Fold each of these.
Amino acid sequence: MTVSSVSTRKPRKTRTRKTSSTKKTSPLNTVTKLPVVMTEETKVEEKVVTPPVTRPAEPNISLEEYISDFKVRWKIHSYESGILWNQSVNLYNDQLKPAAIKAFDYVKSSYDKAFNEVSKEEDNK
């Protein structure tokens, strides 16, 4: 190699960024103050007038009518309670019990499939 073949170039300058002496910052969370509007409510007191309760001088129905009315009401109550009980039993037998059995069988079979097949393979070896 000769000296003339070797280049005598200066190394290339790399570009440098100019930095400012002050940093520019922008607030991330800007808070804008909204005007506060206050309204004052006036309370209006409503007076409820209830007439005084006084006991009538004579009862409206006699004791016999009261007892017979109570017996009729009790029969109605017993009839409606029986209907409610029958509907509850039918709901349990027709809807809830089959769904619970189905869910139990599904969980049991999934568990057996996931964990008990490994033990069967070990027994076969």
Amino acid sequence: MKVATLLVVATLLVAAPVLAKAPVPRALLEAKTIFLVNEGAGQGTFDDLADAFRKWGRYELLDDPTGADLIVTIGALQWYRGWPMTITKPGETTLLWTDKQKKGLTKNVADSLVKELRKRVEGK
């Protein structure tokens, strides 16, 4: 019994670094402003995304990409894959964040997308 317990504990200690999450890009942590882009989501979903970011309060939403620290893009629903959201720096193509939410295909998916981002940015 003691040997089995020791083996389980040793395995968890060895596996812990593998289970660690990837670091959050510094740009997501330091950004103050965002510009939202709609690439095929319905207007209601796009409005929900803006509301979810406003409720969080971490980033100021701008009405022009000029001066935005980050560009947040939501795309059209991709059946069996979900709603895609990506975050980049203005003028760059490197993805700083990407997520797809399958839950709530017709119900406020924006809350789920922002909730996942918030958990990682805030280290929860």
